[in-house]
Predict the 3D structure of the following.
Amino acid sequence: MTDTIAESTGGFPDDAALRQTIRERVEAAGTSFYWAMRLLPEDRRNGMYAVYAFCREVDDIADDDAVAAEQKKTALAAWHDEIEALYAGIPRQLIARALQGPVEQFGLRPGDFHAVIDGMEMDSEAILAPDMPTLDLYCARVASAVGHLSVHVFGDASESAHEVADHLGRALQLTNILRDLDEDASRGRLYLPREILGRHGIRDTEPGAVLRHPALPAACRDLAAVALERFAAADQAMARCSRRAMRPAAVMGAFYRAMLEALLEAGWRAPSVRVSLSKSRKLWLVLRHGLI
């Protein structure tokens, strides 16, 4: 992504050009994230776009199938160094430059950026049926840590808001795992925890074999129950937060809960068929949880 920004803005853009380029990439992605972030004032929205760009950058490194695991680790280690440079006031990468303003304005914590990178380091090697503590650690790093950054940008850095980040981040990531079984398997990854697989007699950890196993739907329902518990805990913490500040989190939670419900209805009988929400459904959820 860094090279793309540099090329599209003449090599070393000013801050306005950098923000515009990052905003265009986020908007072009058409993600649920984009729908929710539109609820924020411009300065906070730009801050979230910069956080999103960082997450996409390190995620792209971890997901690059053409690069060896050792090279990925080296590239991710360089991002640990870049975060240190960012907090020392001397960011070098363009995305880190875009983060400089949000870090100062919203009090973003360096440990959360490092946690995201640590999660991508876990992803840089094939994950195959991790145990539950390892899966929870992974979700905490790649999702809840992003939530901790986000609540600062949203405008509620309270203990309750961070509790939302802990629970909702895990709920969202577990939903992603249950949605992306086929895509992850194509990369040699299997995030379903071994305890749940074993409970249903699934001993193989080869992703394709697991997806073909007749007990897969039952295993997925068990993991979905864990996600639903996290959604419920996030709701309880959300009730103690600033309603206005946390609207984007409420919308994201609504999107992903609806996605999980759709997955449960489909029943994982055909993992290769991707389940998604319609635009009209997303619009209703934005109105229900973000504006009304």
Q: What stands out?
A: Residues 121 and 134 are 13 Å apart (CA to CA). The domain at 1-107 is CATH 1.10.600.10 (Farnesyl Diphosphate Synthase). Residues 1-12 have pLDDT under 50 and may be disordered. DSSP finds 15 helices and no strands in the chain.
